[in-house]
Amino acid sequence: MDRELLNKIATTDYLNFDGNEQNVKYNIVLKLFNAFGYDRLDLEHAAQGSRLDINIGNKIIIETKAFDKNLDSYVSQLKQYCDIERPFGAILNTGKQFRFYSPLMRVTDFADTLIYEFSIKDFARDEVAERISKIIGIENFKNETYIIFIEEREKELKQIKEFFSEFDKRKSEDIQKIKNDISQLESEIEKLNSEMRFKQQEIEQIKSKQQPEKDELYEKHFVPRTIEVQPITKPVPTPSPIIQPIPTDGKTYVIDSLKEGVKAYGQFYDSKRFKVLKGSTVSINLDDSFGKGAADGAYELRNELEKSGIINSNRQFTEDYTFNSISQAACVVLGGSRSGPREWK
């Protein structure tokens, strides 16, 4: 393998290169094969009425197009040549882009026989040159070990595709499981809301209940109407609606201020509340004005968190803590009046 020639080809000045098909074939493709040890090649090989650009012993065929062509438009043509010649390998290229196919691969769609795709610039890379040498290098071609390397590449691609398929399958299953959990929670919440409505109706029924014997008792015991005892009623607290946390997109927001000694992480708990994660650090100092304009009593809250140990002596959160808002979280973390949406990135 002539590495110097490969590097020269890889650094071709495309801006000043005439990219017509013939020029690409003679000044890029043939030189490329020269670099891999080939001296003479079968050019313009007849293929049942058509002309195949290069045929190497009916084992590897090469079809070349001009610089500006889209290789996708010529895959079917390459397949026709492969059906005629039955080669072990096939190359479709524009001089800039090279595709390597394994036509005898057992797949339904010919497009799936693609085993490599490289830019000509990639041939300057040692790893790429070595891989391609295994397929078209003259010695590997002569002793037919290129067939073994093509089969090994097919197995490698199969393993990679199976890995991606299994990964996508597990991801879909995990997503579906979470969706099922959400549906179950929604059902349970609806059931609880229904029970709450029923209990509220019971309260209204009790409040409206009449005492039919009341007049009779008044008459029997000579109770003056003017001192009728009014029932003592206690205010019935209105049950708070059950708030379903809104699932977040999983994004983690960060405040990273070396100047203030802050490295904090947080996530939205629902549409309003914001959770700062365990291990986050708060500011070394507090602003002089902190306490006067901070959101939702942030000054007092920071003092409480430090006293309770939720923020320890190292200025770290010892557990996750959910704030009323993203701005309240920013004020506590930075030790001053701050805008949450501006600070959390």
Integer average pLDDT: 85
Shape descriptor reads elongated
Binned strand content: 15-25%
Amount of helix: 40-55%
* Order of H and E elements: HHEEEHEEEHHHHEEEHEHH
Number of helices: 10
Largest sheet: 6 strands, mixed
CATH topology of the domain at 3-143: tt1808, chain A
Judged by helices, strands and strand pairing, the structural class is alpha+beta
Distance between the termini: 52 Å
> Count the strands?
10
Radius of gyration: 39 Å
The CATH architecture name of the domain at 3-143 reads Alpha-Beta Complex
Strand order of the largest sheet: 1-2-3-4-5-6
User: In terms of per-residue confidence, which ranges show pLDDT below 50 for 5 or more consecutive residues?
Assistant: 240-247
Please write the CATH class name of the domain at 3-143.
Answer: Alpha Beta
Task: Summarize this structure as a short list of keywords or feature phrases.
345 residues; alpha+beta; tt1808, chain A; 6-stranded mixed sheet; 4-stranded antiparallel sheet; 42% helix; elongated
